[in-house]
């Protein structure tokens, strides 16, 4: 399965970059993520529970970051094992580009392979589930980053300022 898209995010590039590298932010943004622990400068261990059709699967995963070009992007790769349900492996190239002082464009290209019993559910169901979880991730991520810069309260109310390294206080 392959996915490619772009998302406008309501924060400066440095703030988005910091959030994408913060295990607690990612844990809160990833649907079904029960645990996310940094294992080094370029890796994480994760436990994620997802529901695909009638199956609920708990994946234990290893995630690695490569081709890191702070604060412009990286490649994130992972492999998860869901016991008898099967496995998932994939990677995504993430690119960040400033749009304005308080907004960043994130482009991503992702590729994923699934095997085992999960794969028997069919590509259509797996694709729609992946898209649903991706939409949930971005909704959660936007919420963590704060309101859009043109909102009545503005970026200052979200706590995003250069004096704070571009990070919201709740990050």
TrEMBL record:
Extent of Low complexity compositional bias: 149-161
Coiled coil segments of this chain: none
Pfam families from the UniProt entry: COXG (PF06240)
Region (Disordered): 149-171
Segments passing through the bilayer: none
Amino acid composition bias (Gly residues), ranges on this chain: 162-171
Protein name: Carbon monoxide dehydrogenase subunit G (CoxG)
Source organism of the structure: Pigmentiphaga humi
Organism taxonomic ancestry: Bacteria, Pseudomonadati, Pseudomonadota, Betaproteobacteria, Burkholderiales
């Amino acid at each position: 399965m392959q996915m490619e898209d772009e998302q406008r995010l309501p924060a400066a590039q440095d703030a988005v970059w910091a959030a994408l590298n913060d295990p607690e932010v990612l844990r809160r943004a990833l649907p079904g993520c029960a645990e996310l622990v940094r294992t080094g400068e370029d890796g994480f261990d994760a436990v994620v529970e997802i529901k695909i059709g009638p199956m609920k699967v708990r994946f234990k995963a290893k995630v690695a970051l490569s081709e890191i070009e702070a604060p412009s992007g990286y490649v994130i790769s992972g492999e998860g094992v869901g016991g008898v349900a099967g496995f998932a492996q994939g990677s995504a190239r993430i690119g960040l580009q400033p749009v304005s002082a308080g907004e960043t464009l994130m482009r991503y290209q992702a590729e994923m392979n699934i095997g085992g019993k999960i794969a028997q559910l069919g590509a259509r169901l797996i694709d729609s589930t992946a898209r649903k979880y991706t939409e949930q991730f971005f909704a959660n991520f936007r919420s963590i980053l704060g309101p859009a810069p043109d909102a009545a309260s503005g970026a200052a109310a979200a706590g995003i300022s250069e004096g704070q390294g571009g990070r919201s206080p709740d990050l």
